[in-house]
Amino acid sequence: MKITIIGTGYVGLVSGAVFADWGHEVMCLDIVDKKIEMIKKGVMPIYEEGLEELVDRVQKEGRFVATTDYKKAVEHGEIIFICVGTPSNESGAADLSYVFKASESIGKYLPENDYRVVVTKSTVPVNTNNSVKESVKKGAGSKKIDFDVVSNPEFLREGTSIYDANNTDRVVIGSSSEKALDKLEEIYKHLETEIVRTDLQSAELIKYAANAFLATKISFINEISQICERTGADVKAVARGMGLDKRIGPKFLNAGIGYGGSCFPKDVEALYRTSSQNFYDFRLLRGVMDANERQKIYFVEKIWNKYGENLSDKTFGVLGVAFKNDTDDVRKSVALEIVKILRGAGAHIKLYDPAAMKNAKKSLGNDYISYMDSSEAVFDEVDALVILTEWQEFASLDYADLTTRMNDKVVFDGRNLLEPEEMQKVGVEYYGIGRSKH
Ligand code: NAD
Fold this sequence. Notes:
This protein is of the alpha/beta class. Helices cover about 45% and strands about 15% of the residues. The chain has helices at about 10-20, 35-40, 50-60, 70-75, 95-110, 130-140, 160-165, 180-190, 200-230, 235-245, 265-275, 285-305, 335-345, 355-365, 390-395, 400, 420-425; strands spanning about 1-5, 25-30, 65, 80, 115-120, 145-150, 170-175, 195-200, 315-320, 350, 370, 385, 410-415, 430. The chain is globular and about 75 Å long. The termini are far apart.
């Protein structure tokens, strides 16, 4: 099948490469020349395990083409996927300007009387796809075009996105056109997974409901961690005991500094806005957002409680700035926010992240921050170590040896990567999240 992808970010580039790997003829378009130039040369504009090799292979095999030529790209695809960003606007609602710009451009270049399917993979609020349809028509002007719109929300996770695209728990497709759904199913037949066929609105809402539910799980265990800290219970033991219940499951039950990233914060907020716009006060979501905001502050308070709020005579080693492990993405990263808070209180920071250093530099600049070239280097002569991202390599460091390089053996572990007892054994003053002191 001939497939076009509009927007080559985390979702578009990975989806395009994976579709090409499944045997389709894929054309990927972006409006940023530099990204397309890099992709053509086989250099990925984003960090994602295995992506460079995959894109290199499908490009060489002639099934994957990157372009900035909108006309060529839109004419190519029987199915055209919109994968552009939908960040939060100032009010917290989803900014749909990129989606509408893309859909208008699609309309402008759609060939006359040649049936096409326009698929929205970007996360968009319920009922947006009706406007996408209008936007495509607007772009087409007086041309006679023949197309249907489908909502096909994406569930991949950064860091494991190629695996996720090949092993998704389900595919959700929604439209009022059976013909369009049949055509889209042709692509996903490749996967042995459940395909949820539904209407446009339900497909759109499934994505928000799923993300809001996962964010709720995170805020829930973070709230439990607060009770643990006040009672002597251990949040890891509680999470394990809860997660073994199949009705609950173990995932998204790691207490920490709160959820961040380019999806959860904006999607939870956008769903709350959608509910308000429809005259419903989604109180549970307010609590989820509130708990998330407080969790970050509770963690910083552990540092302030030890050193006071003026940190100008302190240097901290910081491990991790990406919003999660295995990605270079720092969008809405809680780790990045905490680094900014510590710096704002006067602290000097020695920082390391295995993949996100370039993005961290862009966002933080050089004031008070030294960018180190290894995990080990952040331990040298610092007053405390602060762990902010759950990279596995941080869990397996030799803390007995490395902490001897510090001015003081103090560790603030915002991801519960380490065990309090192990730390105690090597003489470290350890602060986790909701960990028992017994
Ligand atoms: P991104 O910012 O990484 O990529 C978006 C790309 O679209 C950019 O390369 C940008 O240059 C391009 N673009 C913007 N306007 C364009 C236009 N008019 N025409 C062509 N290209 C244009 O975004 P992302 O993280 O890939 O997310 C895309 C969508 O998928 C969002 O709605 C997001 O919520 C959703 N989503 C993201 C993830 C994730 O983990 N990143 C997971 C599931 C769903």
